[in-house]
Design brief:
Helix 4 packs across helix 18, helix 8 crosses helix 14 and helix 10 packs antiparallel against helix 11. Strand 1 and strand 2 form a beta hairpin. Among the domains are: 92 residues, Helix Hairpins, CATH 1.10.287; 115 residues, Orthogonal Bundle (Helix Hairpins), CATH 1.10.287. The strands form 3 sheets. The chain has a 6-stranded antiparallel sheet, with helices on one face. It is built from 19 helices and 15 strands. By secondary structure, the protein is an alpha/beta fold. Its cofactor is Zn(2+). GO terms for molecular function: ATP binding; ATP hydrolysis activity; zinc ion binding. One of its GO terms (biological process) is double-strand break repair. This is DNA double-strand break repair Rad50 ATPase.
């Protein structure tokens, strides 16, 4: 298959893009997100309706209702055109046409019909087409970097083995489900005999339980009659017991009341006697406590006088301190001012010193930097000398300077490059012509074969032709093929000669490229830069050394002034302390006024204390003890006065208690007579209650037994019904089990076919030799010095060369890239049935390091082994290999192609 044109309308980000493609290498370039990969996706969509979106509507450009993709291509020398479109309103449409003379004649319409016709033309479905033709991002890198197991899995996925493995695993889940159903059915059928036996036992148990229920029902009726008689007797005794307990409780209550009232009467008589004694004590205390207020007044006056004396002493001390602080200020004021002035001068000097503080470190840094620059300059001079010596050896000439090397290269290099470019262009032209001849002959094979098998119908336009016309067409095709073969043989010889010529000039070019004048100039520039740096550093060092002298003078001046400042510090601190103390004490006149007031109050209190002494009848020794003693007598007086106040209340309560005591004694006599009349026997009552409890327990036990047997009867009845239903269902289960076993045998057989030892193994065994053969053919075309290449069962590569057998790990990076590319092309050739005309590579250099990326680019540049190659890439180095460059750009959300 060869693609001629792709046209996209409103497809993803392409509003109206048309791309013409021919044989050779076509490079699709652009920034990330520009819409490059959409061109490859348009091919798979047009052919097989395959796309990367979850829904087809996602392929329609935003703010539009319809999109379409038209693809023009060749298969076996015939041209076809396929168009697919999708509308949000009217759905999807597809049509396929074949070129007849100058027009495309309809072949098929409808999505499914068109897809099936494309499968027939290409002899593969969509998945196989993509695996064969489309090399996804990272596949080349994976074939180098992945482990053998991962590579095996990757190749298996391309071959379609992964889908077989998935089907094999999924069928295991299905078989497990059916096996579970089979076990259930077998278990149910196994229990059929036991069910019938259980049915007989259940019927017998049911009859036994029904007989027990009938007997217990009679026992319950008899026990209920006996229980009713005992309950009536117990109710009568309960009534007598209630009367007996009520009367007994009332009698006991009255007796307790009499005891409490007799105690109250005795208590009240004692209290009245105590009150009479208290009245005599009160009359004795009254004269003594009248002296208490005078003594307390005298004590308060003395306490106040004591406090004033303390305040007087404090004020005298404050006034003395104020006078002392004033004297300190007067004597130290001049020293204080000298200290402040000197401190200010030191601060100014320190500020000036700080301006130079970092210069010492900066001076050290500049001196270290000069040593490093000097070393760097010497190293650059050595490298310049080494490069000149190497250039002399390469070009077999003695060079004394860089200018000599430049002059020599200017005369030699352009000629070598021109001759090499000429050889590359000639090779590319010959390879393109060879590829076109192969395509032409391949396209001629199909009509020749069809003409051999038809008589009167043209195989291309399907119109009627005569035998003479058929013979004329057949001879024309055969003659054209023969001419192409002769031309092909001449071109092959010419290609070998051109490759030898190219190799000679490539060798010369590589030697010239080894001489890097840019590096020499860089080293010389580095020497000049180093000299300038040294001059600048020397200037800075001299400037910094002058500043260091100033810094040393400033440090000496600061140290001298600090010594003087230290001598003044004591007098300065004394001045500050006196000043702060005076500020905290405020005005001294206020303290003198307060002192005069206190002295006046002192004299007044002394006079007051003298008057209290006269009233008390002289000075009292131990004044506070006397006051405490009289306070105790006063408390006793008030307490006794309260007790005397209750005399009348106690007298009244005594008269009332004596009257109530007489009435309660009469009530006790009446209740004693009533209790004798009740005639209640507690022992007889207890016997009746025991009999009643026993009957209650018996009756509840009988009813529980009856309820339990009734439950068992219901359970057995339900069980019997279930057994009948299960027995009826077993006939259906037996038929179901037979059918299930037969179906599972079929599933097991199919699953074995999909397993690793079935179709998977056959597919690997069939494909591996073909892949190995095709990989070997492609690898040989890269002209490495290896004689053979082998693939083991895990698709691990072994190559054979002059040094013997080597694995991938033992060869160079460029050779690894060549092996990986040959293996991928070998897989593609195998999947396409040996008819490889087209391959599409999406970012083939991605995930490769810089060295391997460059090696792959060089291989792709030299490739002419496939008629048509489409490469999506952002590597500008591939432009030299392209026959056709398509630059994809995106502006304001729309992608378009600029042909180069």
């Amino acid at each position: 298959m060869i693609i001629e044109n792709i046209k996209m309308e409103n497809f993803k980000s392409h509003r109206n893009t048309s791309v013409d493609l021919g044989t050779g290498i076509s490079i699709v370039m652009g920034e990330n997100g520009a819409g490059k990969s959409s061109i490859l996706e348009a091919v798979s969509f047009a052919l097989f309706k395959q796309h990367s979106g979850k829904r087809m509507e996602q392929l329609i450009m935003n703010n539009t209702d319809k999109m379409s993709v038209t693809l023009t291509f060749q298969v076996n020398g015939r041209r076809y055109r396929i168009k697919r479109d999708r509308s949000k309103k009217s759905g999807a449409h597809a049509k396929l046409g074949i070129m007849d003379e100058n027009n495309f004649m309809p072949m098929a319409t409808g999505e499914k019909t068109v897809t099936e016709e494309v499968k027939r033309l290409l002899e593969m479905d969509g998945d196989l087409f993509l695996n064969a033709v489309y090399v996804r991002q990272g596949e080349i890198a994976d074939l180098i970097e992945k482990s053998p197991a991962e590579k095996k899995q990757m190749i298996g996925k391309l071959l379609g083995i992964e889908s077989l493995e998935k089907a094999w695993k999924n069928m295991k889940i299905l078989l497990d489900q059916y096996n579970g159903e089979k076990l259930k059915l077998e278990g149910r059928l196994e229990a059929l005999k036991d069910l019938k036996s259980d049915l007989k036992v259940q019927n017998k148990d049911k009859d036994t339980i029904q007989a027990k229920i009938q007997k217990i029902t009679g026992d319950i009726e008899e026990t209920e009659a006996e229980y009713k008689s005992l309950q009536d007797k117990n109710d009568s005794l309960n009534s007598k017991k209630s009367d007996f307990e009520t009367t007994s409780s009332a009698l006991e209550s009255r007796k307790n009341l009499v005891e409490r009232m007799e105690a109250d009467e005795k208590y009240l008589r004692i209290k009245l006697d105590e009150i009479e004694a208290t009245e005599k004590r009160i009359n004795q205390l009254k004269p003594k406590i009248d002296k208490l207020p005078v003594l307390k007044g005298m004590q308060d006056a003395k306490d106040e006088l004591k406090g004033l004396k303390k305040e007087e002493a404090i004020l005298n001390k404050i006034i003395h301190d104020i006078n002392g602080f004033k004297e300190i200020l007067s004597s130290n004021e001049s020293h204080y001012k000298d200290y402040l002035k000197l401190e200010s001068e030191i601060c100014s000097l320190q500020y000036a010193r700080d301006q130079f503080a970092g210069n010492r470190s900066l001076l050290d840094n500049y001196r270290d930097r000069r040593k490093k620059v000097q070393t760097k300059m010497e190293q650059s001079m050595e490298k310049v000398s080494d490069v000149l010596e190497k250039s002399s050896k390469i070009l077999n000439t003695d060079f004394d300077s860089v200018e000599d090397v430049e002059a020599h290269l200017e005369s030699v290099k352009p000629e070598v490059e021109a001759r090499l470019k000429e050889a590359v262009e000639d090779i590319h032209k010959v390879q393109t012509e060879i590829s076109n001849i192969k395509i032409q002959n391949k396209g001629l094979e199909t009509p020749i074969q069809e003409l051999k098998h038809v008589e009167d119908v043209c195989p291309i336009c399907k119109s009627n032709i005569t035998p003479q016309k058929r013979e004329e067409l057949l001879n024309g095709y055969l003659s054209e093929m023969e001419t192409n073969k002769k031309r092909y043989s001449k071109l092959e010889k010419s290609l070998k000669q051109l490759k030898v010529k190219k190799g000679i000039f490539e060798s010369k070019s590589l030697k010239i490229q080894d001489i890097n004048l840019g590096i020499i100039n860089e080293y010389m520039g580095a020497v000049e830069d180093s000299k300038k740096d040294i001059e600048d550093i020397d200037s800075k060092v001299a400037e910094l050394e002058d500043k260091m002298k100033i810094l040393e003078e400033l440090n000496a001046d600061i140290n001298n002034k600090n010594k003087v400042l230290e001598g003044l510090k004591g007098k300065y601190e004394a001045y500050i302390g006196a000043k702060n103390s005076l500020e905290s004490l405020k005005d001294s006149e206020k303290y003198e006024e307060d002192l005069a007031k206190i002295q006046y109050h002192v004299e007044a209190l002394k006079t007051k204390i003298s008057s209290f002494v006269d009233i008390a009848g002289g000075i009292v020794e131990n004044l506070q003890e006397e006051i405490n003693y009289l306070e105790g007598l006063k408390a006793e007086y008030h307490k006794l006065s309260g007790a005397v106040a209750q005399k009348e209340s106690f007298s009244t309560r005594l008269m009332e208690t004596m009257a109530a005591l007489e009435g309660t004694r009469t009530e006790i006599q009446d209740l004693t007579l009533k209790l004798e009349a009740v005639a209640y026997n507690e022992e007889a009552h207890e016997l009746v209650k025991k009999d009643l409890d026993a009957k209650t327990i018996l009756l509840n036990d009988l009813k529980g037994q009856k309820q339990r047997f009734s439950g068992e009867e219901s359970q057995i009845t339900r069980s019997i019904e279930e057994i009948h239903k299960k027995i009826e269902s077993y006939s259906v289960d037996e038929k179901k089990l037979t059918g299930l076993k037969d179906f599972m045998k079929l599933l097991d057989y199919i699953r074995d076919l999909y397993g690793k030892d079935g179709v998977q193994r056959d597919l690997r065994n069939l494909s591996r030799p073909l892949i190995e053969h095709n990989t070997r053919d492609f690898f040989e075309k890269f002209n490495f010095e290896y004689s053979d290449i082998k693939l083991d069962e895990d698709y691990d590569v072994t190559i054979y060369g002059p040094a013997g057998q080597n694995s991938l790990d033992m060869i160079s990076g460029g050779e690894k890239i060549a092996v990986a590319l040959a293996l991928r092309l070998g897989i593609t050739q195998t999947l396409s049935g040996g008819n490889l005309e087209l391959i599409m590579l999406d970012e083939p250099t991605i995930h490769l390091d810089a060295y391997r990326r460059q090696e792959l680019i060089e291989l792709l540049k030299k490739m002419s082994i496939i008629p048509q190659m489409i490469i999506v890439t952002h590597e500008t180095d591939l432009e030299d290999a392209a026959d056709n460059i398509l630059r994809v750009k995106k502006e304001e959300g729309e992608s378009f192609v600029v042909n180069s």
